[in-house]
Amino acid sequence: xxxxxxxxxxxxxxxxxxxxxxxxxxxxxxxxxxxxxxxxxxxxxxxxxxxxxxxxxxxxxxxxxxxxxxxxxxxxxxxxxxxxxxxxxxxxxxxxxxxxxxxxxxxxxxxxxxxxxxxxxxxxxxxxxxxxxxxxxxxxxxxxxxxxxxxxxxxxxxxxxxxxxxxxxxxxxxxxxxxxxxxxxxxxxxxxxxxxxxxxxxxxxxxxxxxxxxxxxxxxxxxxxxxxxxxxxxxxxxxxxxxxxxxxxxxxxxxxxxxxxxxxxxxxxxxxxxxxxxxxxxxxxxxxxxxxxxxxxxxxxxxxxxxxxxxxxxxxxxxxxxxxxxxxxxxxxxxxxxxxxxxxxxxxxxxxxxxxxxxxxxxxxxxxxxxxxxxxxxxxxxxxxxxxxxxxxxxxxxxxxxxxxxxxxxxxxxxxxxxxxxxxxxxxxxxxxxxxxxxxxxxxxxxxxxxxxxxxxxxxxxxxxxxxxxxxxxxxxxxxxxxxxxxxxxxxxxxxxxxxxxxxxxxxxxxxxxxxxxxxxxxxxxxxxxxxxxxxxxxxxxxxxxxxxxxxxxxxxxxxxxxxxxxxxxxxxxxxxxxxxxxxxxxxxxxxxxxxxxxxxxxxxxxxxxxxxxxxxxxxxxxxxxxxxxxxxxxxxxxxxxxxxxxxxxxxxxxxxxxxxxxxxxxxxxxxxxxxxxxxxxxxxxxxxxxxxxxxxxxxxxxxxxxxxxxxxxxxxxxxxxxxxxxxxxxxxxxxxxxxxxxxxxxxxxxxxxxxxxxxxxxxxxxxxxxxxxxxxxxxxxxxxxxxxxxxxxxxxxxxxxxxxxxxxxxxxxxxxx
Length: 818
Fold this sequence. Notes:
By secondary structure, the protein is an alpha/beta fold.
């Protein structure tokens, strides 16, 4: 007799599915365990059990579960509730949340394998070349992947060939589960116990007189053990001796050496808790800590608004220590992976192996290991320091969530679904786990500060830097005047160049900020005006001098820069605009003996690239650091005397309702890197518009003034926090279809919501990866329930999908669009 279970598949499906299971298997299952199930014609997927002993389906015949993958639940019922809320709130499917939440290595999928059909015995001479190549290869190995067949026959798409051979009965196709998490095994070597006695060892060495390489391996083994019989890795022994693996294998076969395996943790080797004590707080920090704890008892989320270098991290450390003493776990969110390098080191010094970093630059096995450590609920990895994806980890006893630099828009995921905001989702998540939430920033978002002022959040403020250090002196440089008076050296004004020279003479360091990577965003022909563009996107190609390439920052398309214009054939190409590469090049010409480093997406692609750049700058091996907004986000360098902003106008003139708020935040944050220890720093801002109100507010540190102005403008024009926004994007490869579909959908929305619908309009870049985009913005006023609003949108979508011409248009919902 069959029983039935309900499972959640990691696919964008609107509903769960029911599968059959035997009576003997049912007691082995619990909600949150993984099972492998067939879905579609033949594919196997990892599904999550969400319901036991359910009713059989009426619309289809339930397939049987292929395999039970877990002995205990991978996901708790509390996590499943959180996922369900996230799918509902951010208008996506639970399967999309599932795929995002769980490390990919734990989501096994079937792999298509091609094998020969035993009954096929026709001569190969009757087949065409490609078919005979495949069958010959299958005579030497049991099965092939589709990608391997593509390589054999030198075709990009081998599926037509596979289908033809399948219909003729030459081959058969089967699905097998592949991948999966495996603990890290490290192989060690030691002398066999029979040779531990001195006499036996002496006889052994005599017997190896005619095998000098084997003798050398043994002597190096004794040297690495250093008399303490400590474990020696087989790889270390190979490297030390410089011999081949075969020599060691010979000693293993003779029984001279013995190999054994140790399971090693991937997430760090620190053991226990560090002996270093927490920093002593000054009176202002201590007052802030007490106020935070009072709000926690209320309980309500708390916004800690403290100027740059005011010592917010020390307050976080005290709160973490108190939470750990109560036996609970801590989630410490940071907006950028770059920040985890410095913060992880600082936290490990205080809390040892209790700290673990979690972010997308880690390998899949490392992420899976952190997942399992958290599930065990032990001391190891009880403080998670990570980017927004750490929100989905399986906390058993979460007590505190810290969201550092809460204003950062990198907390918002844009693609793929779920398009969640980690700050907002963390506040809801805390209510499920009964945890406390602390938001920290020197430049809070308008929404968070509004919530704090209205009493929804607790508000704690620190207005002075730690140690009484003054905030940096700020100066605006008028680029228009500098160019007119010929006081420019490339893109450096004489004032900025002299300030860099003076700072370097004082043995201090410099940070230069330019929020655009590459050498130049535009390459233009001076004869005909042609600008090379991306064939897949409506955007110009950015010139990267180091690679000699033109690259698209949207789809990744790249090609070499030609010496002649492709339109008119003349060699009159010139670059326009400024990127970090060009800043670095000009800096090398102005200060040839100065060691300079660049920190942007191009230089930080490797797993450890962030830490290498940051460590070199901390160790003062690098005098000048040039970077994009990566350098603005909470990094703590004690020797930075000067911060230079190459051009502030690109931030001011961005077409977005948050442009001025983000400009204030970015400039204030990057300025905060200067003079953080015993001296006052200097910040120089180059601009064509030094009289702009936002720039004046930045130089005077007038956050309250910026907040009042932005709040007034948003109240007048109906933008957050006065309203909530849902952005609806329509995507398709055909321009006409997107145009018609967007107009139809907008009319449907206006019929329900009236004047709250803006658009449809094309975004600044309207074609990306050969898909045309058109956007509709829906403003939801205060007091209008969000749930019924989303239901109305979904009803309109059902009518939209019922029209055959629009069914292929992809709809993307971005709730709480920022």
